[in-house]
Design goal:
The longest helix has 28 residues. The two termini are about 30 Å apart. About 85% of the residues lie in helices and about 0% in strands. By secondary structure, it is mainly α. It has 5 helices and no strands. Helix 1 runs parallel beside helix 3 and helix 2 runs antiparallel to helix 3.
Length: about 120
Amino acid sequence: MNKLVWIACGGLIGTLCRYLLSAWIDERSHSSFPYGTLAVNLTGCFVAGLLFPVLERASVLPELRLAVFTGFLGGFTTFSAYGLQTVVLANNAMLSIAALNVALSNIGGLLMVGLGYGIGRTAGS
């Protein structure tokens, strides 16, 4: 199968998962803070950190790795939405919420990648 088809299939699934999870969380939060986007970004960071070492050790086709990382996770994580929402919050004079979004997304994302990576490295060893 062509690499682009693998990426496109992963991206389709990741995009749909992003939309469904983000919408589900935002509908329940009743807040101006973008909790759905934050949850998707942190989850995507954790999954990336978890799967990278696992798939690196496994005999996984390079096309499948592309489907997972470039396709699924590329479609799933929403840092473009994060950037836009942060700018909109700042433009609407909600600077403290914008700053909170930046801090939680960046620090939380790095922590989740590290946690996932650590678990992924030790899983199956």
